[in-house]
Amino acid sequence: MTSRPNSTTQPFRFGVRAGSASTANELVDGARRAEDLGYSSLLYTDHYPGPGAAMSAANHPAQPLAAIPAVTAAAMSTSTLRIGFRVLCVDYHNPVVLAKEMATIDVLSGGRLEVGLGAGWIESEYRAMGVTFDRPGVRIRRLGEVIDLMHACFAGGAVGVNGTAGVHADGFEALPAPVQRPRPPIAIGGGGRKVLSLAGSKADIVAFNFNNGSGRLDSAGPRSSTADLTDERVRWVRQAAADRADQPTLEIGIAALNVTASRLAGAERFSDFFGLGPSDIIDHPHALVGDVDAICDDLQKRRERYGFSYITVRDQAIAEFAPVVARLAGT
């Protein structure tokens, strides 16, 4: 069974998931390269511990540079590239401070910010940083309250938010006002039903991730997001967004990319991590394997099936994927 896509097909746009740069030159060169190659956005993730037991337990690479100053530097180094986050963990930031930082980046970039937010998932990272790791329902409810606070701060006027999951703010008007009106677009990232339902009801962009409920990167994530299971995940979003006049954009991160003439051989490279056979990897919504023609065809079919029009790839793959961007961006 397939999901019903957007009633109006949205044109393709392509983003880069950044985070591997470790110097100013690498960051600036990467941002300018993404802009020159026609990508629409550069999005940072939000991880803080360096190498050690915490990130090893999650099977997750350490991120050299902090996301918020890195995005600010990328904004100052480019002129048309949208910049932002995929995603910021709301539990790592005071929400009032975070809202001011987001509005400031939107002002400094001339209105090019995308705000990506998530409820967090790496318990070992939380514990290494001394941050309380609440149960999923509490973290997701707090994520919703942070988004309410962002809306209030971006809208102007008095701020008054009194949530049940720890978000409280009142007695002030927020400054500065963002350039984008009514607000910078807000993305919610996740893979489980609760967070995707929240995204369907509140987000401008729904960022589909693996369901990493285990707290580590392993084959359980890809197996949670196969083609048929993604039909179900898109239905959760559509059901939550059913009463909205403005349907959210659906974005998906590509975890396995190989531009190659041999699809089966290319897919086999990812068999250990995905825990799936090559044919299932070729059909997997978070994988793109094949030559440029095959990948373009897959993306068009997936847009029709799921509604995915916003595609992000890792920064290490921007040159490899550039021919696809050149062919499909804006179509």
How would you explain this protein's 3D organization?
This protein is of the alpha/beta class. Helices cover 42% and strands 19% of the residues. The protein has helices at 24-36, 53-57, 67-76, 95-108, 123-129, 136-155, 193-202, 220-223, 227-240, 263-268, 271-274, 278-283, 292-306, 318-328, and strands spanning 13-18, 41-44, 82-85, 88-89, 113-118, 158-162, 168-173, 186-190, 205-208, 249-253, 256-259, 287-290, 308-314. Strands 1-2-3-5-8-9-10-13 form an 8-stranded parallel β-barrel, surrounded by 7 helices. Strands 6-7 form a two-stranded antiparallel ribbon. The chain is globular, with a radius of gyration of 19 Å. The model is unreliable at 1-7 (pLDDT under 50).
Annotate the secondary structure layout:
Layout: E1 13-18, H1 24-36, E2 41-44, H2 53-57, H3 67-76, E3 82-85, E4 88-89, H4 95-108, E5 113-118, H5 123-129, H6 136-155, E6 158-162, E7 168-173, E8 186-190, H7 193-202, E9 205-208, H8 220-223, H9 227-240, E10 249-253, E11 256-259, H10 263-268, H11 271-274, H12 278-283, E12 287-290, H13 292-306, E13 308-314, H14 318-328
Parallel strand pairs: 1-2, 1-13, 2-3, 3-5, 4-5, 5-8, 8-9, 9-10, 10-13, 11-12
Antiparallel strand pairs: 6-7
